[in-house]
Design goal:
Strands 4-6-7 form a 3-stranded antiparallel β-sheet, covered by helices on one side. The chain has a two-stranded parallel sheet with strand order 1-2. It contains 6 helices and 7 strands. The longest helix has 14 residues. By secondary structure, the protein is α+β, with helices and mostly antiparallel strands. The protein has 2 domains: 37 residues, no CATH class; 83 residues, Creatine Amidinohydrolase, Chain A, domain 1 (3-Layer(aba) Sandwich). This is Aminopeptidase P1-like. It comes from Coffea arabica.
Length: 137
C-alpha cells in the first residue's frame, strides 16, 4: 500500500509539481471533499462585516480604470485572456479599496478576476457602500 500525503489549498501547478515529486517516493496527493481545518476548528469566531472604504487616487496615485488598462495591456503581451488575483493586498491595490478584515493590515477578504473585456471583484456585498461599488467598476 502506498503512503498518502494530504495537502489542502494549493494551486493546480503546485499540486502537479508535488505529485511528480511524491510519485518518486511512492506517495500521492488526495483531494479532500471538505476543508479539514473547518472540521477541527468548531469554535471558530464568525468573520466580522467591516465596511470597505475607497482609497482615493490622491493617495493611491492612480485610478482603478488606469490600473485595469495597464493590467490588460500586460495580459495581451503575455498572450493571456485573464488573470485571477487572490493575494489580498493586490486586490486592495488594484481596486483602491481598504478594510479592516485583518488586524493591523488595511486589506479586505476578496479576490478578483480580470479579463480582456471585464473585471470582477468578489467580496461580501454587505461590506460595500454605494461609493465603493461605483469606484470598483
Amino acid at each position: 500500500m502506498l503512503p498518502l500525503v494530504l495537502i489542502l489549498g494549493v494551486s493546480v501547478d503546485t499540486a502537479q509539481k508535488w505529485e511528480r515529486a511524491f510519485s518518486k517516493k511512492e506517495q500521492k496527493l488526495i483531494q479532500t471533499p471538505r476543508n479539514l481545518v473547518d472540521e477541527v476548528w468548531i469554535s471558530r469566531p464568525p468573520l466580522e462585516l467591516n465596511p470597505i472604504v475607497v482609497h482615493s487616487p490622491q493617495f493611491s496615485g492612480r485610478s482603478v480604470a488606469d490600473k485595469l488598462k495597464d493590467l490588460r495591456e500586460n495580459l495581451v503581451q503575455e498572450k493571456a485572456r485573464g488573470i485571477l488575483i487572490t493575494t489580498l493586498d493586490e486586490v486592495a491595490w488594484l481596486y483602491n479599496i481598504r478594510g479592516t478584515d485583518v488586524s493591523y493590515c488595511p486589506i479586505v477578504f476578496a479576490f478578483a478576476v480580470v479579463t480582456l473585456s471585464s473585471a470582477f471583484l468578489y467580496v461580501d456585498q454587505r461590506k460595500l457602500s454605494s461609493e465603493v461599488a461605483s469606484n470598483s467598476i
